[in-house]
Amino acid sequence: MKLFCAAISLLVIESAFGFTSLAPGSRPAFSLTQCSATTLDGRKITGDVKPLNNFVLVKIGEAREQTEGGILLTGKAKIKKTEGTVVAIGPGRTHQDSGIVFDMPVSEGQGVVYGKFDGTEINIGGAKHVLIRDDDILVKFTGDLSLDSVDMVRDNVLVYVENDESETDGGILIAKSSSADKKPSTGIVVKVGPGKMASDGSLMSMDVAVDDMVKFRDFAGMDVEIDGKEYSVVKMADILAQF
């Protein structure tokens, strides 16, 4: 980028003073758009923002404008999106003992869903972005977010948990909003990731499979909404039993 801008400046000087430093026909083609600068958090920069280590640069999707009941939201009331499109990825994390570089689980152009409180938000050229670690990615997808397009990363497991209502010992149904703070932690496995990477770069086996019923640690699951249904993304290490 800096070379492009310097070359354009040279062309301007040559035109003004009537001399040419390059032989006819050898001058490279440049355009003024190549010299345009963007901004990072309001500060002008040249070149692209490149993540380092195992960081991923994601352009955040638009905030939800209304609730499921159709109520329009404005300003701070808009529901923050925790999904977006991968713009750039870092080279990967290097294991501190073996020195092996772990491949990144996503590529540019893919969609990702990440944790609500994960990452560092930045503004690039007036658009909201976030820098997250590859470990912060809950699911990845291509095209629109749907159960068919979703894939799991690392040792993540997608679990469907039915938690609309529960029943007391006396047979009284309790709505989800009225039940105790304890979250449901039993469900059916819908999708399974390829596995966590060992220090030698190999993948560690996953001990559960699709359609298994599993019990995982309370509050270990991260909620993800797909096709209007709520799922939990759970790390393999947090799954206690299968049945």
From TrEMBL:
Q: Which residues form the signal peptide?
A: 1-18
- Asked whether the keyword Transmembrane helix is assigned, the reply is no
| Disulfide bond listed as a keyword | no
Which keywords fit this entry according to its UniProt record?
A: Chaperone, Signal
Q: Which GO terms describe its molecular function?
A: ATP binding; metal ion binding; protein folding chaperone; protein-folding chaperone binding; unfolded protein binding
| A GO CC term attached to the entry | mitochondrion
Concerning Pfam families, the annotation shows: Cpn10
The record's annotation in PANTHER family points to: 10 KDA HEAT SHOCK PROTEIN, 20 KDA CHAPERONIN, CHLOROPLASTIC
The entry's family comment says: Belongs to the GroES chaperonin family.
* Name this polypeptide is given: 20 kDa chaperonin, chloroplastic
